[in-house]
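INFO  loader      accepted 1 record
INFO  loader      residues=412
INFO  predictor   begin
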Amino acid sequence: MSKKNKIIIAAIIAILLCSYIGFAIWNVSHTQVDTGIPKNAIPVEIENSHIETIICKINVKGTVELIKSETLFSRTSATVEMVYVKEGDQVTAGQLVAEYDSKVLENLQDQLAEAKLSLKSATLNLKAAQTALAGQDKRKLENAGIAYDKAKLLYEAGAITKQEFENANEAKIDAQEQLDNNLSHISILQVTIEQNELKTSQIEKEIENYTLLEYAPCSGTVLASYIKKGDLVVPGHQLFDIADTSLNNLTITAVVPENEAKNLALSQDVEIRCTAIGQTIFKGRVSKISSIATKKQIGNSQETALTVEIRCEDAPLKAGYTIDATIITKIIENTVVIPLMSTMRDADSHSYVYIMHEDYSVEKRLVELGEYAGIYVEAGNIAEGERTIINPSAQVKEGVFVKPVAIRKPEN
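INFO  predictor   done
INFO  writer      dumping tokens
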């Protein structure tokens, strides 16, 4: 190739390169003019505010519990002869559930007869001792006293011997001792009678309370049986736990941390899930809120919490099941929300956002945040469709110009 041809080719390449660069510059300038985006605009990501219905929720875990159950206790000491029901059996109020050995009752009856006989004997002996005390013993002491006084006068007058005087004195002493012994005997008999009366009363009460048969105190399911044939029971011994296990007698107990308790109210709707009965969501309502807060174990820590009761009328729940519950505390319809990632706080803890206007200028606007809805939050002082800047950089300030490089759509 000649030197002249090389020069021509180089000139053509230079002309093409200059044309390309010029076109690129013209294209950029033309695009900015067409879109209205100022030069040096800061690239940002935006999302429009939109209307949404916010459902405020409290998520808790709970346990299905019985509202009321009955425990049957033994009223006497006895040996179990027969047990007619077992755990899980359905019973009706008044149904025979256990029977005791009759030998214990027979033994009590024998003890009562013996106690009554002892009481009768002691009563007769008391009457005899009281009769003797009122008659012979007192007269004997009176006579011995008179004889002693007479012997003393005669002895002092020298009419009888010293031995005769001492014999009269000893007779008086013997009479007094006999009277004292009888008084002591009467006291012992009175104590014996009181003891026999008490024993008789106790045995009569045992017999009165004794029953050969035990009956179910209510209708329901036998939750637990604590006895078997041959067991010896005493008064107060636990025999059976029985309860109505229908939904009418079940409640769900859950704990709500104190920071969320202020949003609770009676009759709030509750969504209930229980893995033991599948993925179906059942409806319930808050039926009771504890009047005081206590320390409760929530996760791995102890927190101050309120206990709530939830009633559910259509779920096939059983006592002891663990459930997940979502308490609906508030529903806010048709409210404006903005992305959480667009909100910031200033040095005075005021919330604000940056808004991009039609001319791509930026406005810093204070907002009042309300309820949260996932990644969005209720915002006052914002109209529907206003364009909020997501995660603005430090370059974004009021009055600067921005250009949207990505426009996010609201997540459902």
